[in-house]
Known about the structure:
Largest sheet: 7 strands, mixed
Strand content: 15-25%
CATH class of the largest domain: Alpha Beta
Oligomer: single chain
Number of helices: 15
Amino acid sequence: MAIPLPNRQLFIGGEWKEPVLKKRIPIINPSTEEIIGDIPAATAEDVELAVEAARKAFTQNKGRDWAFTSGAFRAKYLRAIAAKITERKPELAKLEALDCGKPLDEAAWDIDDVAGCFEYYADLAEGLDAKQNVPVSLPMETFKSYVLKEPIGVVALITPWNYPLLMATWKVAPALAAGCTAILKPSELASVTCLELAEVCREVGLPPGVLNILSGLGPEAGAPLASHPHVDKIAFTGSTATGSRIMASAAQMVKPVSMELGGKSPIIVFEDVDLDKAAEWTIFGCFWTNGQICSATSRLLVHESIATEFVDRLVKWCKKIKISDPLEEGCRLGPVVSGGQYEKILKCISTAKSEGASILFGGARPKHLNKGFFIEPTIITDVNTSMQIWREEVFGPVLCVKTFSTEDEAIELANDTHYGLGAAVISKDLERCDRVSKAFRAGIVWINCSQPCFCQAPWGGLKRSGFGRELGEWGLENYLSVKQVTKYISDEPWGWYQSPSKL
């Protein structure tokens, strides 16, 4: 099924603009390894133009054109974007599947979530109007104080390739709802649908410069954007290593950042579970999105009394997963995003084997697929806690397994990690689930499931998984600053100094 890819440029100041240095990056279909198009490659020169456009849109007419309009005004644009996204859902889902290898059914689900996220933040933008001038109770009657919530300014939004349009929307929608103007820099490995978001914004008449979109390489576009002195905040989703570099750059100007970084999340399966239900959630929690999820519950801790039977059940479920071109009906596991990622994952599996772990299932290219960056769902056993496969993020369809004997041991093993993004517990004993949930050192906990995500609920982690929260009301707060306004309301002089008129 041939789908023509749109030939787009950079989106700056409401217009399509060719990169200053006229560079472009090839788009490689991860299913076929063929070049199917290209995207523009921004450099520091384009970043300069985009920041200037965003700054102009923020300050124009003293902010009365966007930043300090009513939330209801901005909500109209967010709803119009949501409607256009819904209208173009079939096309956008196919583009997403072609670009990053995501199964088509999953990509379609993501596009629904994109539209839903814009709608949700339209509601919160309207609600922001009622939260202005909120009075603060003071101990002195001669003063009155209130609070204003104002947009933080020009924001840089740097997003990953595993949920190209959805991860961008998690940042774009609340930033625009708050009244910020933004420069979005999606991953060079999957920018196609983000550039289509630019076309949607153009079609709905979003004021020029409110959202600018620069595709390009991290060092050439992301780095100058993150370090730009006229960018007021950086919101980043990606690897912990890149996040650390962005933080160091922002620190030079004491610039606020929010970070959603890597993970190595645990899933604890107790002995009282329904084996099939637990098995499906376990493989969904690790193999969904082709295993490329920062919150993947890729460390399975299973009670020793059911371990053999449960792992056997996992293998039976894995054998039923359809691995194919993402556009094929019923595909449930597509290719990983790139050749580089493919090699990295296979190396992680090879290292696990050399360290003494056992590859129980998968671990290689599926036999029926000769091309594409496909890796079988992989289950690794005989793992100890010092192994790389247990401690480091793989970002691929790889599950490692360890047993435990007591609840305390399971919690200790679960929390023994540098990361703290997600964690899951599966048990019929709901009191135990609540205890374990409280004991987890993670920002997101799932009980009797893994990976469900709703735009109304906060998302983010602890430790090296980052800080700050996206989604929900917390996501909007990311892009707002709080201003205290206090006024003196007495007719009496303050009287601290002796008045010259009384001398």
